Amino acid sequence: MILERPVPCQDLQSFCDENGCLDESLAKKVLLQLITALKHCESRGVLHRDVKPQNLLISTDTHDIKLLDFGCGDLLKDSAYRSFEGTPQYAPPEWFCWRRYHAGPATVWSVGVTLYKILCGCLPFRTAWRVTSKTILHFSRELSTGKN
């Protein structure tokens, strides 16, 4: 399989390590591209299952991104997945509670964790397996309210 690799580029985690957390404008640009890529995967019946900054290439010139590493991927299905592939820190809470998850909500969860990581520089929860609906999310930096 031959895949495109923009030059110059690096994975998004390395980019953030070198340049600091993304500002909200760049994070928005990255997130919109990520969602577009994931919707394309869904339209082709593919579930990525390992969305995280290390699996996104960013062009250091244009800030265009590419989703990579489909090694944990699977065919998309409507029923619950009963095995987890991917990075546990990005796994949805239902995996830890019930040992199953659905594609859409799990993808949304991992996108949210990814967004938090690129904006705040750390993961949102120390112990992903203990997250519940009562867990309070704290932000390590001041972010806009989005009411501009």
Number of strands: 5
Strand adjacency order, main sheet? 1-3-4
For this structure, what is the CATH class?
Mainly Alpha
Structural class: alpha+beta
Give the total of domains. Answer: 1
CA-atom Rg in angstroms: 15 Å
Question: What CATH architecture do you see?
Answer: Orthogonal Bundle
Give the CATH superfamily: Transferase(Phosphotransferase) domain 1
**Topology as H/E string?**
EHHEEEEHH
**What separation lies between the terminal Cα atoms?**
45 Å
Task: Estimate what percentage of residues fall within beta strands.
Answer: 5-15%
Overall geometry: globular
Structure annotation, total helices: 4
The biggest beta sheet is recorded as: 3 strands, antiparallel
Low-confidence stretches: none
